[in-house]
């Protein structure tokens, strides 16, 4: 780490509920090599670099033995990040209202009471990687995210671990030449969706205030942002526990095998999840973290390198 002065600010906050700090923040991480994220000691200290309405920010979070979460912040967006700490850690989530309707879901909920939906309250930082994940493998999407952050994002403020970068801002994204998108492995359809989002990025941030279906509907007004992408953003930006990622390549099959013992499509999945409204995505999350593994019968989907096209 480089030699920097102390944080621009710090905050201690003790939640009135059981909290799995790493589990709540994990959806914001895009693969092990994510330049906007760094964890130390199996998640005992988590560093994040992000954009905010006030500028870039770096935060370092860790939890003390008494349950208090300590957050230090650097950069122009430090105070905004500190103010948003409770929301980030799921203070507005309502897991106590969740009722399990399947034994597997009930068991996961019992074993992981600290797993909550946090709200980053920042659409842009989660929208770009969500678009990059459209119709490609996770390996491809994470590679593109790494390259865009490293080449076009600014260094993380403060004493961030070496190599940490802030996600590229809308202005930085709009300035990327066509050949650099190609070099990063991003095809024209995803590039157009990201550029269209960058053009109205400030307006899209109001989706956090709208929340729920209204927020998702606002995101879907952007060409190239469909139901799946809007749900992926909603889960992270405002902690939408009902936003199911319809259109996902894996989730319907996983939910089907886990809850009804056979593969199903999106329509059938929504039928199975209907009793969980308005917390359908929480049920999906519990299936994902339960340890259940569906049967595998065929070859895995092979990545496609768009840089070679």
Automatic annotation (TrEMBL):
Its EC number is 3.2.2.21. The keyword Cell membrane does not apply. It catalyses: Hydrolysis of alkylated DNA, releasing 3-methyladenine, 3-methylguanine, 7-methylguanine and 7-methyladenine. It comes from the Bacteria. It is an enzyme of class 3 (hydrolase). PANTHER family: DNA GLYCOSYLASE, DNA-3-METHYLADENINE GLYCOSYLASE. This is DNA-3-methyladenine glycosylase II. It comes from Pseudonocardia alaniniphila. The lineage of its organism: Bacteria, Bacillati, Actinomycetota, Actinomycetes, Pseudonocardiales.
């Amino acid at each position: 780490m480089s030699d920097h002065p102390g944080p621009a600010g710090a905050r201690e906050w003790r939640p009135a509920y059981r909290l799995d700090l790493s589990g709540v923040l994990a959806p914001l991480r895009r693969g092990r090599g994510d330049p906007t994220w760094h964890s130390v000691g199996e998640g005992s200290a988590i560093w994040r670099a992000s954009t905010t309405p006030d500028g870039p920010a770096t935060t370092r979070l860790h939890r003390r033995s008494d349950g208090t979460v300590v957050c230090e912040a650097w950069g122009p967006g430090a105070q905004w990040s500190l103010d948003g700490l409770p929301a980030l850690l799921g203070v507005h989530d309502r897991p106590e209202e969740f009722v399990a309707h399947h034994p597997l879901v009930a068991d996961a909920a019992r074993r992981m009471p600290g797993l909550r939906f946090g709200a980053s309250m920042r659409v842009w930082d989660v929208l770009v990687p969500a678009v990059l994940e459209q119709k490609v493998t996770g390996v491809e999407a994470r590679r593109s995210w790494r390259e865009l952050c490293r080449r076009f994002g600014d260094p993380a403020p403060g004493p961030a671990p070496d190599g940490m970068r802030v996600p590229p801002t809308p202005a930085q994204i709009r300035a990327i030449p066509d050949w650099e998108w190609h070099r990063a492995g991003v095809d024209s359809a995803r590039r157009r969706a990201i550029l269209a989002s960058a053009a109205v990025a400030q307006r899209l941030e109001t989706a956090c205030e709208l929340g729920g279906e209204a927020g998702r509907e606002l995101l879907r007004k952007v060409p190239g942002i469909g139901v799946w992408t809007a749900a992926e953003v909603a889960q992270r930006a405002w902690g939408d526990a009902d936003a199911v990622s319809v259109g996902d390549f894996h989730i319907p099959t996983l939910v089907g095998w886990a809850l009804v013992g056979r593969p199903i499509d999106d329509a059938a999945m929504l039928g199975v999840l209907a009793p969980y409204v308005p917390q359908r995505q929480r049920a999906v999350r519990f299936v994902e973290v339960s340890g259940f593994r569906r049967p595998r019968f065929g070859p895995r989907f092979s990545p496609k390198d768009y840089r070679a096209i």
